[in-house]
Amino acid sequence: MTKRWTAQDIPSQRGRTIVVTGTGGLGFEDALALARAGGDVILAGRNPAKGKEAVDRIRASVPNASISFEVLDLARLDSVAAFGARLGSIHDKIDILINNAGVMTPPRRQITQDGYELQFGVNYLAHFALSAHLLPWLRRGRNPRVVTLSSVAARAGTIDFDDLQSERSYKPMRAYSQSKLACLMFAFELQRRSDVAGWGIESLAAHPGIARTDLLHNAPGRSSTAGIARSLLWFLFQPASRGALPTLFAATSPDAQAGGYFGPGGLGETRGFPAAATPPEAALEDDVARRLWNLSERLAAVDFGAEGDVPETVARHVSALSAKA
User: Fold this and answer.
1) Engineered SS bond to 227: which of 98, 192, 222, 274, CB 3.0-4.6 Å?
2) Could you tell me the pTM of the whole model?
3) What is the predicted pLDDT for the residue at 217?
4) With pLDDT > 90 as the criterion, what percentage of the chain qualifies?
C-alpha cells in the first residue's frame, strides 16, 4: 500500500447498513466518516445521552446523514441479545459490523453482569456474541464485512485458559492485552469459519496505533499515571480521526483483503496512514483460536451454527417481538 489512504477514499456507502459500537472516540469518527459516505449508520452504546450527543454532532456536520442510535450495553449479554433482536426486526440485512467499543485497564478488577472480567467481557466476549446474533443478517448483506478492533497491546497478550477471568491475579494491562489478542484471534477464526461454511462474510481486524481517545481517561482515570500521561503528553497520541483510518480502510476499501489486519504504517505501527499490520505470533495459533471460540460460545450462550442460521437466542427474541407487534 503506497498511497496515503484517507477518509476521502471511502467508496460510496449508499444503500449499506452499518453498525458501529461505541459512541465516542474511534466509534464516533467511524460513524461520522461512514455517514458522510452515504451509509445508513447505526451507532450503538450504553448511554442514551452520549448517543444523542454523538448523533446530533454528526447531523450538524453532515445535514443529510442517515444516522441513528441504539442502546447496547456490552457489559450485559442480555442487552447484546436484545440489540440483535431489535435490529433483526427492523432491518433485512447488515452490510458492515464494526466491533469497536471497549474499556481499558480499570485499576481494580471489575466484572460484567454475567460475571466475566470487564475487559474480557466487554472488549471481546460481547462482540463475539454480537457477531453471532447478527450473523444471519450479515449473510444477507452486500459484500458484508465484520471488522474487529485489536490493539498494539495484543503483542503482549496471552490467552490464559487457567485464569481467563483474572480471578487469581488481576493486572490491568495484562487483562487488556489478553482481551485484544482474543479480538484479533476471533477475527482470523471468523474468516476461516466463513470460508469453510460458505457464509460469504469477510472478517478483518484493525488497530488504531496510539490514538487520542478517552479510553485512558475513562477507565484508569484522569488522575492515574496513564491518564496524566494522556493529558500532558497529548501530542504523542495521533488524533482519533487518524486512528480510525485503519478501521475505515478495513471496512470499506476494495484493497482490504478478507482475513487482513491493518494499522498505522509509521513508527512501529503507532501512528500514520493505514497499512498492513503484523499480527503477533500468538494470534496465529489456530488450535488456541478454535479452543477459545468453542469456550466463548458456551460462555456467551450463542451458537454460530454450521450454516449461520438464526441463533436460538435471537430466534426467541424475534418471536417475542413479533408476538407483541
Assistant:
1) 222
2) 0.89
3) 42
4) 84
pLDDT of 200 over the 80 cut: yes
Average pLDDT, integer, range 181-198? 98
**pLDDT in the model for residue 132:** 98
Domain regions of the chain by residue span: 12-319
What is the CATH topology of the domain spanning 12-319? Answer: Rossmann fold (3.40.50)
| Crossing angle of helices 48-61 and 25-36, rounded to 10° | 40
pLDDT digits (tens, 9 = 90+) for 46-76: 999 999 999 999 999 999 999 999 999 999 9
Is 170 known to be catalytic? no
Phi, psi of 177 (to 5 degrees): -60, -40
Cα gap 120→102, rounded to integer Å: 10
Greatest distance between any 2 Cα atoms in the chain: 55
Identified catalytic residue from 116, 124, 176, 261: 176
Question: In this model, does residue 232 exceed pLDDT 80?
Answer: no
Query: C-alpha angle with apex 283: 308 to 26, nearest 5 degrees?
Result: 75
